[in-house]
Amino acid sequence: MSDAQTDEKRSRPVFWKAYSFGLVTGAFFLVSWVGQFVFQAIGFANEASDHGGTFSWAEYWPDFLASTFENWQSEFLQLIWQAAGLMLFYFWGSSQSREGDQRLEAKVDALLRERGIDPVGIDRQTRKLAESE
């Protein structure tokens, strides 16, 4: 294994640290979904007993799934689109993702200066070439 590969492995964060936001979000999702299941089942059972009936899983599941999909449609799908859309636009290079480009340019400029090359001079040369084409 080369030194670059070893450095890259060392610089990677541990799984739990790298994906902590996603793991916490997933935990919130599961807790809220289980909570919805439990409290909706209690409400369904209470409503059935108020009308002289009994709780039936066959009747409960369609009700639970319908309310779940209503919640997902109104909340989770909007959130997923916002996250997925932001990710797509970031990778496509929208104006919101310019921060990464600026950071990359700063690193390249630092490397050029380290080798005794003036980055501003290179920018001028690049502009002249672009104008002459």
Automatic annotation (TrEMBL):
InterPro entries: DUF6766. It comes from the Bacteria. The chain crosses the membrane at residues 21-42. Keywords: Membrane, Transmembrane, Transmembrane helix. This is Uncharacterized protein. It comes from Promicromonospora citrea. The lineage of its organism: Bacteria, Bacillati, Actinomycetota, Actinomycetes, Micrococcales.
